[in-house]
Amino acid sequence: MSFLIKFARQWIAGETLDDAIDSARKANSNGLGAIINYLGEHVRDKEEAEANKNENFRILQEIKENKINSSLSIKLTQLGLGIDKDLCLSNVEAIVDRAASNNIFVWIDMESSIYTQDTIEIYLTIFKKYKNAGVAIQSNLIRSESDIHRIAASGGIIRLVKGAYNEKSDVAYPGRSEVTMNFSKIMGFLFYRSPFFAIATHDERLVYEAIEANKAHQKKIEFQMLLGVREELKNELVKKGFTVVDYIPYGKKWLPYSLRRIRERKRNILLIFRSIFDI
User: Fold this and answer.
1) Residues 152-184: pLDDT tens digits?
2) Which is nearest to 106 in space by CA: 79, 80, 84, 86?
């Protein structure tokens, strides 16, 4: 287990909120923003969903008290989506409301495709009342192009990601090249339709494609990347004056997240072994 914990630290601040705040403070000192995420998903107990809501309240309080340049990221199955949609909506609204009172932005993570419809519906409901919230959309899903059009029509704010969940072929593109092409297509649409959006990828080609596109469009964009990945690219973008943000997860439920990071990009396996064995 100690071996697994060591490689998980490639992408995870630690098990406590203090670890996450320390990582966010370090990111800020290097010119990066932060997104703090409390790990955990698929709760089946209302009391656990309530406890998770309270932990997100604690994150917001620590961001405020420590004057950290950070937003919050939440997963809806952690807040009761698998129990009751209305319960989840209530929890999300409470978090976003408190974040709004502290001028903190909240990103809603996207989970596997069985939750996509509910996640978008909850987001659009929240966005009608609160403008300090955005939602992740995955370019690996076939439905995402139509979802982007719907969200953009409502003025919603999007974090574009490739997607890290195993999906069936009837809902997702089968190959990485197709996922990348769809990412590029959706990103192009966002440059025309959205005044602000986030590009969450480690794919250097897509990053530079976005930079070139923005020379013409002059939109407010930010590049979001995982803690511990593509540090040189992050520093390069910061030096060029771009907004770059570290996604900083913490908590004891780190294993599912770490396994998704490996599936998402096989190159991450090499990064893990380099960090463990100093090769």
Assistant:
1) 999 999 999 999 888 999 999 999 999 999 999
2) 79
> Which tokens belong to 178?
């197709």
Percentage helix, strand, coil for the chain under 3-state DSSP, each rounded to 5:
55, 15, 30
For residue 225, which phi and psi values (nearest 5 degrees)?
Answer: -140, 160
The Cα 273–Cα 203 span in angstroms is 21
What pLDDT score does 276 carry? Answer: 43
SS3 at position 63: helix
Say how far residue 201 (Cα) sits from the centre of its chain. 10
* Model confidence at 1: pLDDT above 80: no
Length of the chain: 279
Q: Which residues partner with 172 through β-bridges?
A: 141
- Name, in order, each residue with C-beta under 8 angstroms of 211's C-beta and a sequence gap of 6 or more: 242
- The pair of structure tokens assigned to 49 is 């969903």
pLDDT exceeds cutoff 90 at 50: yes
pLDDT digits (tens, 9 = 90+) for 144-158: 999 999 999 999 999
Q: Give CA separation, 124 vs 127, 129, 207, in Å.
A: 5, 9, 27
| Helix, coil or strand: residue 246 | strand
Tell me, what amino acid is at 261? Answer: R
Q: Are 225 and 202 in contact (CB under 8 A)?
A: yes
Q: Is the pTM of this model over 0.85?
A: yes
Q: What percent of the chain has pLDDT over 70?
A: 87
Q: Domains in the chain, ordered, with CATH?
A: 2-277 (3.20.20.220)
Token output for 162: 């490739």
Task: Please give the positions annotated as active site.
Answer: 109, 159
Taking the alpha carbons of 122, 124, 127, 128 in that order, is the dihedral positive or negative?
negative
* Residues 244, 32 contacting (CB under 8 angstroms): yes
